[in-house]
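Tip: read the tokens left to right.
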């Protein structure tokens, strides 16, 4: 849960429906979610080798060779689950990043429409 969501929940204030929020506010909310999702992936990704080393160390303590322990660590269900968790965190962060890009595009499109409309009005006034 994001910090903004926790603060909103604690205050008892309901969030405005998404369709009523302006694009900048929607972008801010998605950007906060993305930052948290990206940080979660970063942590998982950077501890991946530590997890594999812990699993390998347990194998070595049982009396196995280092190479066999490393091979077993990579093949273990615990390591595989950890990799899947990291992959899911990355997927979630990528989806949020795509939503941010979409909101940027919508804002640019809206700006272009407003600019075109203003230009048309200026041209119309100057022609009359």
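Filled-in amino acids:
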């Amino acid at each position: 849960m994001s910090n903004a969501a926790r603060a909103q929940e604690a205050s008892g204030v309901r969030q405005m429906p998404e369709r009523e929020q302006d694009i900048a506010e929607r972008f801010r909310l998605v950007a906060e979610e993305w930052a948290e999702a990206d940080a979660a992936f970063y942590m998982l990704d950077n501890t991946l080798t530590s997890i594999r080393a812990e699993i390998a160390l347990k194998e070595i303590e049982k009396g196995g060779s280092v190479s066999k322990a490393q091979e077993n660590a990579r093949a273990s269900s615990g390591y595989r689950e950890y990799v899947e968790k990291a992959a899911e965190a990355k997927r979630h962060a990528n989806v949020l990043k795509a939503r941010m890009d979409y909101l940027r595009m919508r804002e640019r499109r809206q700006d272009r429409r407003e600019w075109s409309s203003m230009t048309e009005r200026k041209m119309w006034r100057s022609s009359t």
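The two ends are 57 Å apart (CA to CA). The mean pLDDT is 87.
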